[in-house]
Predict the 3D structure of the following.
Amino acid sequence: MRALLWMALSFMLAWPALAQDTAPDRSSTGGAQTLEDIMARQRGEKLDDSFRRDATGQGNVEALIGQLGTRGVASDSEVFRALRYGSANTTTQASGPTSTLLIQDSGMAWLTFREGPLLTYGLYLLGGMTAVIALFWLIRGRIMIEGAKTGRNIIRFLAIERFAHWLMGVSFIVLGITGLVLIAGRKFILPWMGLEAYATIALAGKWVHNNIAWAFMLGLAMVFVMWVHHNIPDRTDIKWLAKGGGLFSKGVHPPAKKFNAGQKIIFWSVIVLGVSISASGLALLFPFELPMFAKTFNILNMTGLPQLVTGGALPEVLSPYEEMQLSQLWHGIVAFVFIAIIVAHIYLGSVGMEGAIETMATGEVDEQWAKEHHSIWYEEELAKAQAKSGADRATPAE
């Protein structure tokens, strides 16, 4: 009895292998897969799929021509089988990173997010920042120079510094305006302007946006090189922040060096966001040449952070189209945050504070303004001037 049971069990275990050696009869299905084929695939067995691999109509180019032409020599399923198994000759198609990608279903998710949450919450952010500035204006008003002006000016920024600042600032404003037109124009401008007029504006805006980006990146690099050593955080920044920089109270002027803590926050925000938006912009300027997200997701997954936050890993294999879509969405997200920060900076650097606009217009400020807002820097500049004056007096005239 034991021997019989052992033989029966051995036969049952060997049956899949025996069945695999014998090709199933597909005459009843007209050559299509049978139930046994499906069961074998589910059991993880190696399946002879030549009955599907070779069912491609007249094959290769003829199949494709027949499908796309008028002769009808291949059905849809036959054409897609040839493409799936790599037997279709696609050399007549355009070559490139996406030449082998026929269908990508991430496009609708990208479009839905772009026209939905990105645009909606981005405009909410800009509107909220505008409301905060208006409220600050009503409560605090313009920050005036409280002491009497001396009439003596001190040089705060050199010509090359002002050039870099204005190069980056003006180009950013143009980029912001054209970017908003491109991302929000279909919803807010096209309905009352019409297709043809908006198409002309959008095309011109795209050209300007793509080309003036180089000026912004140049200005960003110049500003970083010239000002990074002035923006290293130190203990004076803690005291400045503890007193709110004196922005909310009259008569309060915490000591500050050439750049106070608030300006340092703006500086590093501009550098980090500027580099990020430039990287995604370059990826969009050179399609499929600078993929970033798959590698970034791989690094993030190695840290385990995505698993802690979302409970799952980020995708590490992305199609070229998905890379471009993520670059465009990230470009838009960073842009909205960047614009909101710069709106606040423009307000405080112009109408929000007396004497601030002169720092970038002429490069000079009144000594009283320097004493109130940047007292440590003023004392350092005064000591340098006195030392230079003493050295000049000690040098005999020729």
